[in-house]
Write a structure and sequence with these properties.
By secondary structure, the chain is of the alpha/beta class. It contains eight helices and 13 strands. 45% of the residues are buried. The structure holds zinc ion (ZN) (2 copies).
């Protein structure tokens, strides 16, 4: 499997001279396996996705906050009906997923109703996707702690596993189940939006800290951890300082970063 990052900024896209290095696009992570293309969230980074030719693209949404869906209609390849995209989320039943995306991308919020306009964009329940893919890989989900809910995903193919936990406010009562879900993963994406000081002031905002990732991994034992959902105001300089203080195995996510899983 190969991971490509197209967006790792939290909350709102930030185009600025101080976000050039780590990038300003919101959440969008692509995993390519031998047979499929998976995209975790369609933040503003979705505009830079190159659709796989002759392969189905699965778009898995963690939740429906705007920074995780806003990029969907801004990739021109989506309007090529040869590109089949299957949208799913385990947060809601599939009818609710479809209605939610459709309402967001319809007048008056968006010029056209993209769900009705694009026959190549299909909606399938998470269970149906799991079944469709079971001959190739295993796909699992876990409920996360976030206002309105959010869903974490795990993709395992052969000996490699990728875990996506965004957005999540880490709570002690999650420790056991989340560590079991992430156990020994080759790559974990962690919502590390806040510093410890910010976390103390922002209880209930739905995000975690980098230090919590370090504590968590003592139990989860993931082989590599990417910290993501960088706060919009966090400058490259600040992120570089944070990067210097990170233990081995921990890396800050940045746009265009590619990692073999
Ligand atoms: Zn978010
Ligand atoms: Zn959110």
């Amino acid at each position: 499997m190969k991971l490509s990052i197209h967006g790792c900024r939290g909350s709102t896209a930030t185009s600025s001279s101080f976000t050039k290095k780590y990038g300003g696009n919101t959440s969008c992570f692509e995993i390519k396996t031998d047979n499929h293309q998976f995209i975790f969230d369609a933040g503003s980074g979705f505009q830079n996705i190159e659709f796989s030719k002759n392969q189905v693209t699965y778009l898995l949404l963690s939740h429906f906050h705007h920074d995780h869906i806003q990029g969907l209609p801004f990739n021109s390849q989506l309007f090529d009906i040869k590109n089949e995209v299957i949208v799913s989320s385990d947060l809601f039943d599939i009818e609710t997923v479809k209605t939610t995306v459709q309402e967001y991308f319809s007048p008056p919020y968006f010029p056209i109703d993209i769900v009705s306009s694009l026959p190549n964009v299909k909606f399938l329940s998470f269970k149906d996707i799991q079944k469709q893919l079971e001959a190739y890989l295993s796909l699992e989900s876990i409920a996360l702690n976030h206002p309105g809910g959010s869903t974490g995903y795990k993709l395992t193919q052969k000996e490699s596993s990728f875990v996506y936990l965004c957005d999540n406010e880490f709570a002690e009562d999650q420790r056991r189940s989340l560590a079991a879900f992430s156990k020994n993963a080759d790559l974990l994406i962690w919502d590390g939006m806040f510093t410890e000081k910010e976390l103390a002031e922002k209880k209930g905002w739905g995000h975690s800290s980098i230090k919590q990732a370090i504590d968590f991994n003592a139990e989860a034992n993931c082989k590599k951890i990417l910290i993501s959902h960088h706060a919009p105001h966090r400058s490259d300089k600040e992120l570089d300082q944070i990067a210097d203080s990170l233990p081995e195995l921990f890396t800050l996510a940045s746009d265009k970063l590619e990692i073999e899983v």
